[in-house]
Fold these 2 entries.
Entry 1:
Amino acid sequence: MRKEHSSEKSDKITAALIEVVSPAHVTTDSYEIEATTGDLSILPKYHYKFKEEHIATHVVRPKDTEQLAKVMELCKTYFQNVTIRAAGTSCYSASTPTKGGVVIDVRRMNQIHEIDEEKMIVKCDAGISWIKLIEALRAKGLAPKCYPTSYKSSCLSGFVATSGKAGIGVVKYGSMIDTLIAVKLVKPDGTVLRITKTSSGELTIENVVGSFGILGAVAEVEMSITTLKTSMEFAGYGFNTMEEATALYRAIKDNSVEKPFFLSLSDKKFEGLSHVTIPTRNFFVYAVFYDNPEKTGKAISYIAEKAKESNGLAIDQWYLEEKWRDIAETELNLGRLCNNPIFQEYWVSDERITQFYKRYATMVKTDKYRNAFYMIAGAEGKSRIKLFGLSDIENSLEFFGIKANFNLMAQKSYKSGDEIYTIGVVNTFYQHLFNMARVKYMQKLKDSVDPDDRVNSYRIIKTKMRLWRVKLLFLVAKMLYRWT
Amino acid sequence: MTEKKSKDVVTTGPSAAFLFLPNQKNLIAPITTEDITQDYLRCVNCGYCRDVCRVYNTTFSEKDYAGGRNRILKSLVKKEIPFNRETIVDSVFKCMLCGACREVCPIGINTINVFRSFRVRAVNAGVMPEKLKNLRDSIVDYANPFLEDGTNRYNWCKGHSCNEGLAAYEKGRELYHKIESGELKPEDVSENLVGYFVGCTSAFRNNELVSATCRVLDAMGVDFIVFPEEKCCGSVLFRTGVDNVANELMKYNISMVKKAGIKEVIFSCAGCFSTFSNEYMEYTNNKLGFKLSHVVQFVPRYAKEHNLSIKYKLRSKEDPLIITYHDPCHLARYCDVYDEPRELISMIEGIKLSEMQYNKKMSHCCGAGGGVRALYGDVATDIADSRLDETVTCWDEINEERLLEAVETKADSLVSACVFCKNNLSNAADKYKPDLPVQDILQILENCEIRKKE
């Protein structure tokens, strides 16, 4: 049971925060803290909630950059640890408090400051949800260039902080970093820094994107946008082998004439775990093109030709159209059959997709849990592969056995030159095992802006779990699972 | 009429407001729990309910939308957080039960049922906001939530303030008298005679609506009575978890209608209509024994059957009043009544409908539902105000085709078909937007000329 926090110091902090924000948006209510503590994850709670002493004492909701800066400064004055929370949809504890202190929830910062239709730029608060931004732009015939498939619940600052390398529009227009023109960052000491594409000061845009908030809170975003298009066409083909499917997937992705707006490759099990009628073959490549009719028409013809070369079987248009309507739910739908599907996301070079899949296929052949494979195209010649295991924490042997498999896949991926897609808190130890160069680089930046390590601690530069414990846990889990 | 033509908008699909609907037929049916109170355990924490929740969008508190509330409930059940009598009230009662979250839930959790069942549990455990206790006591003592003496229920038609209503009331008394004296058997009552269930709010507070209803029905030539011994339908009690009292009222009202041999009951109150259509229907296993119609259903049906034309006297076909229709949760998400009110509006010459972006299934709640108006007045007003903001950019045409040509329009008036929506939205309009009239559809109809088509 959690103890009520009522120390004198806490009261002082509360009063100071209220002065900056407002009584309605500063709380020490244990229920609110509980609801704000974890990620909005389909994963079971143990995955993102840490020990009692790590739970926050305050939740504060600033309404704009100025208030956010004052709150951050105040937390420094009172030596408060800070967790920055946006939509909380990372699934890997990116918004989970790890050292107590104050949770700064930026969702109230949701204003669009300017839509410049001539320069095709939008300036907005980073806490705005993607769906709200999409709606506002749409009313003017405009659209963001890229956004995550979780756009119905996630918000801008999260996509920036977690790197935004895979999603809708990424292959066609580039990832979040390509779209950004500038960000306003509130540093851990409360100073506000406007960082542009060409900034070469203490922090660059490259430093901020994918920094998981360790350098401060992204408060405002300025990014390039595009116009709504006149034609959307779909292509989908089924294949007997992963090699054939990958050949088409890569041909679509690498086609310089017309890039897909969205591209995915899934196995039959993934489609079958949420749909009644599914494509008959083992693998399914799905592409969406969005431009003028001439361009999308050409792209569809090109794919038809390429699919023929790979022995692809065309999928019915109704399935393809429904899949687009379903695009945000496509992963969530696995929750229709299982309360706690487990998953891990990998960031894999397009050249190593088949190699990755072979490893995975061998693994699941031995361990007969319900599994699924889903991949979406990303930037940098890579794709985000998501492996699912439909188990439940109640069946702990299977649950941790599957996690051990995911760990094995992660280790092998890193050794092959690939990595985990979302780091958050939970996956930070992989950085320490396999990417110390980045850890050291980020540590240096962190030391310069937050030497006391108060803000978003235990992301990237410091692990929450001890490495030997993680290794031992997975080893035991694997053995027990195989044994039973 | 203020109309601004914007450039043609071409989009990839339906308005984002509609993107929320996971209505694919090819999806596997989700696993479900038999015990509705356990359904929250299936929550996959997708967060869809957060963006559609009007309370969350006002308070920005993670505990104020369905997913956040589910997280608290899960932790409470596992005893990870202490049970706190005062805080739990907010978690359970700061919700309008509007059902927007139910519409968007990708795994089909019936959030209305879940949260309503938790209210029942809370009330049974003695956890109940003080204001709600007063409401319950008033209904127990007076059969209405306003602490009004039951004898005042028909004051609205006494003293010739509404002669049409008085006539229907007297006709109702006469009918009951005949049945009680054995002069008339219930089964012999004319099929064409309909009973008008007025509802407490119109009877005690919004007399203009009950008068308008009676005048409209009379102008259409409808043969109707007002039930002379009506009691509260129990809606507010069902919504706030006080089921035991509500059940008694339900039994009384069912028996009251049956006793009169009435085959169709009409309502001007969306809350009463919804309670009869849902709770009363469920109680009787869908064998209520009489038909239910809200006036927005009854009027267009009756007008078509009797070849009636409806003309708004204050404007013309050439210069129509631009109205936007606010779907009340009780009629819309609770009873699936979407098309009939729009059909009715389209029948009225001199009125033109322009839709707000969030309409029908994704309509934003006015903020009054689920006891929020009574318990959290400021939140209810803020929610209503944000709904009023939507009237500035209505769309003449919202369809689900891929290509959409839209014309942005500012509505002259916001119209609803629910007394609670009208009151809460009017309240916000008085405070923030005094130039925007908020009306009930009956007030529009009252200003119409209704006659046989030539």
Note: The two ends of chain B are 30 Å apart (CA to CA).
Entry 2:
Amino acid sequence: MASIIDPKFKRGFWQDGEPFVWGTAAALSAILISITILIAVIMVNGLGVMWPSDVALLSLQDGAQVFGLPLREDPILGSDAINLQIKTGNRDLYGADFRWVEKGTVRAIEYPSDVYTLERMEYGNFYGRFKRLGDGAAPASSEDLEKAWQAGQEEKERIAAAAEEVNALSRRIDGISGRVLKLKHSGTPENDATLQGLLGEQETAKQELQGRMAEQSALTQALLAHTATFVDAGGREMTIPLMNIVRLYQPSQMGIGAKSRFYLSKIGELLFDEPRESNTEGGLFPAIFGTVMLTFLMSLLSFPLGLLAGIYLREYAREGIFIRIVRIAVNNLAGIPSIVYGIFGLGFFVYGIGGTIDAWFFPERLPTPTFGTGGILWASLTLGILTVPVVIVSTEEALGAIPRGIREGAYALGSTKFQTLVRVLLPMASPGIMTGFILAMARAAGEVAPLMITGVVKLAPTLPLDAEYPFLHLDRKFMHLGFHIFDIGFQSPNVEAAKPMVFVTTLLLVLIVLLMSSTAIYMRGRMRERYSVRSL
Amino acid sequence: MTDPVTTEESHVTPQKPAGGVKATSERPKAKPAFDFEPKIRIENLSLYYGQTRALFDVDMSMPAGEITALIGPSGCGKSTLLRTLNRMNDIIPAVRVTGTVAIDDVDIYSKAVHVDLLRKRVGMVFQKPNPFPKSIFENVAFGLRIHGESNRNSIEETVEKSLQRAALWDEVKDRLRENAMSLSGGQQQRLCIARALAVGPEILLMDEPTSALDPRSTARIEDLLDELRSDYTIVIVTHNMQQASRVSDWTGFMYEGYLVEFGQTEKIFIAPEKKQTEDYITGRFG
């Protein structure tokens, strides 16, 4: 046995496999590091946006003073000087929200406690001191300002309720117009009783609508008259209608608790409110809703289809050259650029099927398309065919991975092929099939290109699901977080102001995909526990 | 058990004569005469996997209520032969069978035979325990459910009876809802036997049922076979010649697709007629 004890024996460096282990570890580390950096960048930039930072008063060398939030520093190329970016807000006064100053020219930075930050319906934030309320006849304190603003907010809610009534009324008129169109299209004579009745109804509704609209605009005008005047650091006055102020606060006077509450309320706004300021401010609710609903509809269409196709390919189709070609084709479908699917969706679903539906069922509305234009149904169908190969492949693999003995065991008991499939094979394959679903869902939720030509819009006036009959409006256009990122990041008139929103939206999209995937992964874990063939 | 076709009269081969060993085959064949009524009768059976022939004109009969063992070296066709008895080879495409396999004088390869009903009457236990990844209870109840039984009490009763019959009841009666995968290999195999018994077969086919098990589990399965022998016709394929001699009443020795010799186990092991058989059982090859 001396031969196995040899102190001089040593395997070669490469035979030993040690470098290979390092290689594998390095590959994994590289992936983890890049993902971590990506997530960290998004988190740092996205999470900080909504924190109410103290407003600084910067005194410059030339004697000018300016309120603002110092954002970041950039070295100036070719010199030692450093540029400082300040968010100055007050776009209506200065023409821009941001300003670069050379750091050397800033003499002092203080944080005065009486500065207000105003979030406004238009022109972005305003930073300044409170001067007076209304025409300034009566002296007013900060408390008076906040009270007046509160009262204005309540009034605004009443106007919003009135606006909702106006909307309902105009939808009713639309409905009547549709029926009128239909009747006229089907050749009903002008003097037909039903038609005349409808026209009369439409007329009364229109008059009522005009009355309501006048009422609403009067209320708005009255409210707009309540103003407050603020001054910027240079002493320039700005009179702002109170109803245009979304939030007003003095960040330097807020403690950590108050700031945290404020932060949470901002997150609430983000999740549940409509966007404003061409999407650079406000909430993302329609986009979140659109994304989730799109993914859900896509799953509803793609998963059953892919599952059935996968079952046929694996269980019923006779193996042969044709099936092999089909299988290769399905695998390759997953590699087609998504924009190609988008174009296909536009040509086939929107113009082909949608156009046909319009010609058959809504001819009276033409040339205004109903289904013959982009909508959430067509977008989800397009995403459906884009993801269906993944579902087919995973279904096939999962069924194929079941040991032959299990099938034989079922057949040997006199089970038919169908019974075996439904009672034994599919439950066992479910974790693997779920993996395909998860991949498909994650891909669909992150896809933007095909949506851009099949129905996504920058700003959708209505959601595809609401309380109005027939509740599910598959023909409607929708908003989507992925498109939102592209839109506000690259198509916005005020890119610098939109930048924080890009990070927030990205963070939200990642979180939503994470949430949907983890739900599916949790379900897969449960199935795996139940149907695993591994001995415990 | 009653005549298998009484409940499914339409499945009877139309030209079935009244009894008699040679009933289904018109060709008179020279073959050893045995003094038993065969449960299973195989005549002139050949099987092809595509172009490859796996069985060559096999003729043999298996008596009711006794255990028949099939022995032979790997690849000799004994498993293939076993799987012709419940038409398990149907699953494999390009398999072609000629000749006759008759159970109770009904040709199971005739068009009128419904293969699901055949398999209900001819149970099978495999080499590797293959319980479904379901609960112990559901494993045994599976066969009942797929054959349309929905009465809960009746299912529970049959499950208990089958588990008792398979000598597993005492070990699992308190954990029927647990996953069958948590059982040991030997227990899993007895569960598979219980699962096969639950649907009420008359014939049990066993394809090397103990080759994946340890000696203790093997002994338990062999004891179980001994208990089952009077109620079922059992055909067992085994690699283990001691096992064949221990448990079986009849033994067939197969080699390269041919049935070399068939006879009573004692005779095969003590005084085989063919030299090939002798060489194999004395360990000179195989």
Note: Chain A has a mean pLDDT of 87.
